[in-house]
Recover the amino acids of this structure.
């Protein structure tokens, strides 16, 4: 099967030999033209027309009332947590199965991640498991949610749309509302993915998106925060630019701010990429279909699919094998054939920095860690 799969992928990508990486960017539109414009005008840094154009495009594409361009997805998450009012010693509910940036951002505010299990079909936070955990430990005091076991306030919840697959985010939002917990979506991987017709990152108070080089559309490095709360959006925007009070020549600041600005040169790149996003998503969905055809003939391997009413960008395709041993076998064989595959992240609660954090039953996360592999998923578009 491994030789057959390697040949199938090589044919799909029209690459008879050489290494095929997990995800390569594709520059098929106005990228060069816009970058040249930045250089010609000398506007390569923190202000420029592309930064504003990018924010506008993000609002149009996602339906958000306000978008804040930032330096990367981790900064978007961090600033979202600040905007949610997360403070030292709070707990923030999140997933153990996610990229480490989700948890690091929580710790930047000196808060504690509290791990909730995922659903087996979306690999995103499970509403059922969230509800069970809150019923077990939550206590409302003066309208705020507390963990009665640790005595800490549970201020926010950060679920993550894994590999672009939308999770059951409307149900998570309902539970968060019930417990007065601020919902922030980690939509770093799900640009172009929708659930029930709404763009991911738009179901809570704030949503964070990444434009890292490995994402479906890239600014080299970059991120965005989405919100419908325009006042909050403006405030976070201000914080992201060192909280400098706008003035022609004076330097005055009214908060402890951050240097989280997206430079104009990065915004130029992402503007050109966003113009092509619909093509990227379409191509990714075709790649997913091609994988589906291959794996439906293989009994003991499942390809992860979007759930009903979800529309995935299929940023990275993921398969699940029968066991840990099969996972190693698969990884060894495909990587040896020059086709990059990688296991899902190590669960964060098993890392030394997060091993003491509170958690619910994480059985689905553990099973997913044992069995899940990402397979090469670059777009095939080349102009
Ligand atoms: C789930 C998730 N959260 C956060 C991030 C952080 O984004 P960035 O690398 O742009 O800081 C990434 C990706 O890199 C991610 O995949």
């Amino acid at each position: 099967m491994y030789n057959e799969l390697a040949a199938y992928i090589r044919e799909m990508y029209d690459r008879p030999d050489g290494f095929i990486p997990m995800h390569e960017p594709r520059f098929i539109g106005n990228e060069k033209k816009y970058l040249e414009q930045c250089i010609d005008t000398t506007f390569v840094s923190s202000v420029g027309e592309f930064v504003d154009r990018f924010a506008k495009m993000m609002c149009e594409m996602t339906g958000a009332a306000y978008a804040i361009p930032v330096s990367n997805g981790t900064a978007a998450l961090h600033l979202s947590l600040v905007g949610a009012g997360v403070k030292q010693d709070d707990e923030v509910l999140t997933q153990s199965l996610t990229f480490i940036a989700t948890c690091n951002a929580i710790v930047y505010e000196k808060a504690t991640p509290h791990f909730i299990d995922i659903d087996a079909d979306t690999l995103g936070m499970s509403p059922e498991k969230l509800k069970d955990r809150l019923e077990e430990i939550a206590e409302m005091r003066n309208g705020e949610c507390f963990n009665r076991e640790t005595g800490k306030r549970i201020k926010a919840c950060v679920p993550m749309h894994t590999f672009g697959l939308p999770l059951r985010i409307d149900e998570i939002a309902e539970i968060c509302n019930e417990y007065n917990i601020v919902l922030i979506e980690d939509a770093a991987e799900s640009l172009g993915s929708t659930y029930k017709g709404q763009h991911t990152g738009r179901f809570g108070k704030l949503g964070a998106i990444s434009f890292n080089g490995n994402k479906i559309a890239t600014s080299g490095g970059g991120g965005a925060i989405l919100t419908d709360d325009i006042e909050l959006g403006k405030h976070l925007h201000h914080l992201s630019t060192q909280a400098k009070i706008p003035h022609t020549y004076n330097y005055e600041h009214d908060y402890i701010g951050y240097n989280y600005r997206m430079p104009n040169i990065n915004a130029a790149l992402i503007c050109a990429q966003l113009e092509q996003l619909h093509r990227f998503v379409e191509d990714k969905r075709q790649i997913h279909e091609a994988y589906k055809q291959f794996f439906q003939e293989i009994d003991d391997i499942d390809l992860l699919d979007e759930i009903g009413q979800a529309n995935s960008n299929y940023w990275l395709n993921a398969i699940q094998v029968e066991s840990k041993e099969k996972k190693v076998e698969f990884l060894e064989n495909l990587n040896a054939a020059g086709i990059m595959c990688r296991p899902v992240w190590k669960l964060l609660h098993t890392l030394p920095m997060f091993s003491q954090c509170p958690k619910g039953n994480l059985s689905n996360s553990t099973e997913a860690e044992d069995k899940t592999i990402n397979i090469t998923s670059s777009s095939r578009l080349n102009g």
Q: What stands out?
A: The mean pLDDT is 97. The first strand starts at residue 66 and ends at 70.
